[in-house]
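Below is a filled-in request sheet from our internal design queue. Each sheet records the structural input a requester submitted and the sequence that came back. We keep these sheets so that new team members can see what a complete request looks like end to end.

REQUESTER: design group, bay 2
PRIORITY: normal
MODE: inverse folding
CHAIN LENGTH: 132
BACKBONE (tokenized):
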């Protein structure tokens, strides 16, 4: 049974930083299938925030480029999301996702947008609240 367990959420003031962790059980983050982080804010659709593609390259939503960094530790089998210079519009429930499609984002010319329905495993989510 696969479990993705997120931690590190919380409340922070604008300009602050947080780091999310996602530990996987029954699944290896050494996999070549896409994996990463999504978020869902109230009244909005779930969106991809930062994702590793099958080449190990990273893709970021335009709104977080330069502020968020995705990384992983294969030994600890843990995925991370470092979030700096947080803004109130980053407030959302953040989800770790794995078992995504097998693809290279570069083949899409930088226009690939990960779709939640293409990912098979999800964590329970962790809330991030950024106050102004």
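RETURNED SEQUENCE:
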């Amino acid at each position: 049974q696969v479990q993705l367990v997120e931690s590190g959420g919380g409340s922070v003031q604008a300009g602050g930083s947080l780091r999310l962790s996602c530990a996987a059980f029954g699944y290896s983050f050494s996999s070549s299938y896409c994996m990463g982080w999504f978020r869902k804010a109230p009244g909005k659709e779930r969106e991809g925030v930062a994702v590793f593609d099958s080449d190990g390259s990273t893709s970021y939503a335009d709104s977080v480029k330069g502020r968020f960094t995705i990384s992983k530790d294969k030994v600890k089998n843990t995925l991370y999301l470092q979030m700096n210079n947080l803004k109130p519009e980053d407030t959302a429930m953040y989800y770790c996702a794995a078992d995504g499609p097998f693809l290279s984002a570069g083949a899409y010319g930088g226009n690939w947008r990960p779709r939640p329905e293409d990912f098979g495993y999800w964590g329970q989510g962790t809330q991030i609240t950024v106050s102004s």
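SHEET NOTES:
- The CA atoms of residues 16 and 102 lie 34 Å apart.
- The mean pLDDT is 96.
FILED BY: M.R.
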